[in-house]
Amino acid sequence: MHVRRRWMILVVGVILIGAINPPAASGQTRSQIIGTIKDSSGGVLPGVTLTLTSPNMVGGAQTAVTSADGTYRFSNLPPGVYTVEAALQGFQTIKRTGLQVAASTTVTVDLAVAVGSMTETVTVTGATPVVDVKTAASTMKVDETFLQNLPFGNRTTRPQEIFAMAPGITTTRTAHGGFRDANNMMVDGVPSAIVGNIQSSSLNYSWMQEVQVVSLGANAEYGEFTGTVSNMIMKSGSNIFSGLFDYFTTRESWVAKNFGSLSPALQAKFASTQKVLSRWEATFQGGGPIVKDKLFFFAGADVYRNEYVNMGALPGPDGNPVAANEHWKRYLGKVNWSPATAVRIEGFIERDADDINPTATSMTSSVSNTSWIPKTLYNTRLTWTINDKTLYEARIGGLRTEQDFLPPARRTPSMVRTPTRTR
Predict the structure, then answer these.
(1) Which of 25, 75, 109, 246 is most buried, by the most CB atoms less than 10 A from its CB?
(2) Which residues of the chain have pLDDT under 70?
(3) Could you tell me the CA-to-CA distances from 328 to 159, 302, 376 in Å, in that order?
(4) 3-state DSSP assignment of residue 410
(5) CA 33 to each of CA 50, 57, 153, 338: distance values in angstroms, whole numbers, following the listed order
(6) Strand 184-187 and strand 242-250: pairing?
(7) Nearest to residue 155, comparing CAs of 194, 193, 208, 213?
């Protein structure tokens, strides 16, 4: 079968699936660069050829031609760093480099070209415009550099702790004095929380390209909320191979004690019942091209182990306090594909497997249990840029979560397993 016929069949299939089974309201994560090209006297220039390049852009370089009023538009762009080059016979070629484009943002880049030879290239560098003049939404964005330098204790920090950096939002998932259910938590534009935002997928934030919090003035596609929308934009592969290994640990000897003012007897008691036995986390990730300009991949794995003894922990059969255990495993896979110049297909799947045994203390023995909470988050999206003013998108995604609550082994055998499954 001819290559073009194969991808056209795929496009039609995704469009039909999207029409038959439309997804819940989703947030926009794509961006655009727009602007006007003028000559040195301020007159607009139609017919200017612009070329847009970026190692993050699947599908290779894009081209556009200015219209009669001198304007141009590059749409359906992933977050990344871009270069715009403008060329017209009889004028110098001008290149604007280092354009940092965030998710769901319109960046306005106006250029002025001077009379001269096309072989003469003028390179312009400068700060990227930070104000999106095409939206009235109140949006806070946390970029990758800021995320990597946050003083969190480990990479398993829950997303709401990052979202709480936005004005009016708390770590209990409330915003602007409203109810927790009034907010929406997303990953790459797909809802990632259910049951009043209690169950949510907790991505390792080393995998995040950016975090955005949208509140007042949000566009219609963000629907299903009256508070804020918090959207985590995951990293993607590019034409450059890259990877990361990250490891942290905490040892008992590194932990300060806060009971030095107590009597020796009490100090001895607390010292024997509050310990870090094993606390570490290892993160692996990597991405790059499978086919240059056409097919990118990004993958990651995260393993977290935390074993400790709480103060007041109940004794086990051997008479020693029973340790609490938290074992978290997370896996992520993502691909970006451009089967044709105007068509982009991307998809990811993320799996959490949290095994938590909090271990009852003397004050919580009646409610202690062991939790196994696997979660699977997935999304597939097709975008077709019909022209510079029309974009079609079809998306299929969702979150599947399960909960198994088991009584600790030392509790009465009359208690039985009570599984709960939500989809």
Answers:
(1) 109
(2) 1-29, 126-138, 151-160, 171-173, 180, 193-202, 216-226, 269-274, 311-312, 357-373, 403-423
(3) 15, 8, 14
(4) coil
(5) 11, 13, 37, 20
(6) unpaired
(7) 208
